[in-house]
């Protein structure tokens, strides 16, 4: 997954920005290299904790590269979300992977041959795609964002507009509904939750569920 | 008030010194209060951080079997860096280290970095109590992080900007804390929880023999203890531009007001922290999701309506 993200960052890299200074080019390239190397090391280490946080480091490098491309908000949010996600994922990885709990050193790979073929093939497909696709040249600078926004703000605004367009409002309404659904599902499914403790009416009068 | 000026990188040294002094101050206050509560001399208690620093600097580092030394070093080093990353976006009067256009989100990202640091500090020593502490912190984080995020959003929505300097400048006369007190309380709860100390943050609690701190010794322990005090101070410092009007105030210059407000809030947090009951992570989850989160969302709704009506 991190490899795919690194590919994406290199795609963005090839889009010429009007003010792409040499320094920024070097920064984005270096961060891309960091992202790929840390992503590859995920499969070399023998500890679930190290693998998890190498992946986090890879994503942080991607986020930094996105910031270097003037998408400040998107880049920092990538760092925020990925740190959070990897911290939680680490718990589940240790709990569920390997021969019961992965607190001991273990290999991070299995089905090596098939995995290598799949990884190699997808890399070739993505790389060929990057090279063959006729990327549009940027014809103008991003339009002005909301009043008072910075250059980074304007780029983020136009990216969001390009991705979502008219569907922005729908997405913004749907996302809290989805979150509420997830939370409600967890609350109801939880065997030690307050519904199990206090009963269905939450008054502690009826015996609801298991105790 | 008005625009803030981004200063050169070497000024980070001054930020580090201020942060260090403030961290020493809150630890001394904590020591004094603890000593007085135990019936001992408060001034002796206030000297505790200095005594402890001297002791830890001389203490030989203790290691455990099959410890993950690399990850422990990452965690220990990170504890020193994280508070600095937080205060980097806080304007000291008219100067700021990093005038980031998304400073509020940046602060949020760094406070999530604390999850990583605490868990790694727990994992590193390969010991049961440490690991338990690391897991407890993550469980607790599930409860405080989302309300904290929405509490951070409220002042940013009111100011119409994620730049910390803009948020500070958007409250002349009327600090945000006056008309968004719920967001302020939720934010302070989050600060108490992510500073890895006290009842809202049992990752290093006595109930699990010190948890993530159990196996830390010598300089490692010193840095983590200093770092968590630094996190409390950085949390207090960030509240100043967000809720307390930044550097605005009578008579004194802006930078001094920022320092005074930070010191007062940090001291208040230390005092309040000692008064709170211990909360187990699963009970804190119920509190976080059924009280803090709806309260923060309602606060955000009120702020948004005010912004729409005002414009």
Compile the SSE list and pairings.
The complex is a heterodimer of chains A (211) and B (311).
Chain A: H1 2-14, H2 22-41, H3 48-68, H4 72-96, H5 112-132, H6 151-164, H7 168-189, H8 194-198
Chain B: E1 5-6, H1 12-37, H2 42-46, H3 48-58, H4 69-87, E2 95-96, H5 103-123, H6 128-159, H7 164-169, H8 176-179, H9 181-194, H10 218-243, H11 254-275, H12 281-310
Parallel strand pairs in B: 1-2
Helix pairs in contact in B: 1-10, 1-11, 3-10, 4-5, 4-10, 5-6, 6-9, 6-12, 9-10, 9-12, 10-11
Mean pLDDT of chain B: 91
Shape of chain B: globular
pLDDT < 50 stretches of chain A:
1-18
Greatest interface: A-B, 26 and 30 residues
Structural class of chain A: mainly alpha
Helix proportion of residues of chain A, in percent? 55-70%
- Report the oligomer: heterodimer
For the largest beta-sheet of chain A, the strand count, sense and barrel status come to:
none
The general outline of chain A is: extended
- How far is it from the N-terminal to the C-terminal residue of chain B, by CA? 22 Å
Give the radius of gyration of chain A. 22 Å
Q: Low-confidence runs of chain B (pLDDT<50, min 5 residues)?
A: none
Spatial arrangement of strands, main beta sheet of chain B: 1-2
**End-to-end gap of chain A:** 41 Å
Share of β-strand residues of chain B: under 5%
The number of distinct structural domains of chain A comes to 2
N-to-C SSE series of chain A? HHHHHHHH
Q: How would you classify the helix and strand content of chain B by structural class?
A: mainly alpha
Mean pLDDT of chain A: 80
Q: How many H/I helices of chain A?
A: 8
Q: How many strands, which pairing sense, and closed or not: the largest β-sheet of chain B?
A: 2 strands, parallel
């Amino acid at each position: 997954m991190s490899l795919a993200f690194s590919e994406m960052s290199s795609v963005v890299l090839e889009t010429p920005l009007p003010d792409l200074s040499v320094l920024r080019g070097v920064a984005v390239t270096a961060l891309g290299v960091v992202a790929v190397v840390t992503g590859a090391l995920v499969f070399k280490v023998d500890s679930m904790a190290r693998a998890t946080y190498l992946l986090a480091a890879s994503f942080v490098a991607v986020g930094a590269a996105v910031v270097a491309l003037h998408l400040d908000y998107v880049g920092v949010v990538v760092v925020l979300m990925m740190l959070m996600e990897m911290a939680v994922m680490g718990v589940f990885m240790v709990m569920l992977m390997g021969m019961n709990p992965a607190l001991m050193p273990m290999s991070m790979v299995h089905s090596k041959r098939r995995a290598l073929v799949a990884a190699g093939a997808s890399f070739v497909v993505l790389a060929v795609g990057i090279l063959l696709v006729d990327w549009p040249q940027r014809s103008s600078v991003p339009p002005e964002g909301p009043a008072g926004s910075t250059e980074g703000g304007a780029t983020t605004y136009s990216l969001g507009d390009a991705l979502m367009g008219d569907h922005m409002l729908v997405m913004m309404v749907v996302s809290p509904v989805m979150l509420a659904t997830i939370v409600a599902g967890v609350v109801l499914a939880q065997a030690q939750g307050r519904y199990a403790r206090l009963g269905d009416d939450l008054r502690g009068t009826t015996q609801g569920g298991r105790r | 008030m008005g625009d803030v000026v981004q200063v050169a990188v070497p000024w980070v040294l001054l930020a580090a010194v201020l942060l260090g002094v403030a961290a020493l101050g809150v630890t001394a206050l904590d020591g004094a209060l603890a000593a007085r509560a135990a019936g001992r001399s408060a001034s002796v208690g206030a000297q505790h951080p200095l005594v402890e620093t001297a002791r830890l600097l001389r203490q030989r580092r203790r290691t455990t079997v099959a410890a993950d030394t690399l990850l422990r070093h990452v965690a220990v080093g990170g504890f020193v860096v994280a508070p600095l990353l937080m205060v980097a976006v806080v304007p000291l009067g008219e100067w700021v280290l990093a005038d980031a256009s998304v400073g509020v989100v940046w602060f949020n990202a760094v406070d999530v970095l604390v999850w990583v640091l605490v868990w790694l500090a727990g994992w590193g020593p390969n010991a049961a109590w440490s690991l338990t502490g690391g897991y407890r912190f993550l469980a607790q984080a599930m409860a405080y992080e989302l309300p904290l995020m929405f509490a951070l959003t409220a002042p940013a929505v009111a100011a119409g900007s994620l730049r910390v300097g803009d948020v500070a400048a958007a409250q002349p006369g009327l600090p945000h804390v006056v008309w968004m007190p719920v967001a302020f309380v939720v934010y302070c709860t989050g600060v108490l929880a992510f500073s890895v100390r006290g009842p809202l943050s049992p990752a290093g609690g006595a109930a699990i023999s010190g948890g993530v701190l159990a196996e830390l010794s010598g300089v490692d322990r010193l840095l983590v203890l200093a770092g968590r005090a630094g996190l409390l101070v950085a949390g207090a410092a960030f509240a100043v531009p967000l809720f307390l009007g930044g550097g605005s105030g009578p008579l004194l210059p802006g930078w001094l007001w920022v320092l005074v407000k930070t010191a007062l809030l940090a001291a208040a947090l230390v005092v309040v922290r000692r008064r709170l009951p211990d909360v187990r992570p699963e009970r804190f989850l119920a509190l976080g999701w059924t009280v803090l989160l709806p309260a923060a969302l309602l606060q955000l709704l009120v702020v948004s309506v005010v912004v729409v009506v005002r414009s």
